[in-house]
Design a protein that fits this description.
The structure is a single chain. This protein is an alpha+beta fold and 91 residues long. It has one domain (5-90): Alpha-Beta Plaits. Helices cover 36% and strands 29% of the residues. It has helices at 17-24, 49-59, 76-81, 83-90; strands at residues 5-9, 30-36, 41-46, 63-64, 67-68, 70-73. The radius of gyration is 12 Å and the shape is globular. The termini are far apart.
């Protein structure tokens, strides 16, 4: 099952939420962006699961500021796997 939330890894520490929103908005409407620069990770929430799938398909492995982004759809398996990370991330 795909969700409208995406998990991003391998971001450069200079990447801003505005840059991520601009990039992902090429594939649909973005509801929310949250990045943790010092960890090189972030979350993007699109308005629909189909937009999230499209963004993930086009942007996974793409290079931003010299780093290849890894993008995962936050399906149920991944959500359970990273539950501890989420609690630390959103504090």
């Amino acid at each position: 099952m795909h969700t409208k939330r995406l998990f991003i890894e391998n971001l450069d520490s200079s990447t801003t939420e505005n840059e991520i929103e601009t990039l992902f908005s090429l594939y649909g409407d973005v509801d929310k962006v949250k990045i943790k620069r010092e960890r090189g990770r972030g979350f993007v929430e699109m308005t629909s699961a189909s937009e999230a799938r499209r963004a993930c398909a086009h942007l996974d492995g793409s290079v931003l500021w010299g780093r290849s982004m890894k993008i995962h759809n936050m399906n149920d398996t991944l959500r359970h796997r990273f539950i501890y990370l989420f609690s630390k991330f959103f504090g």
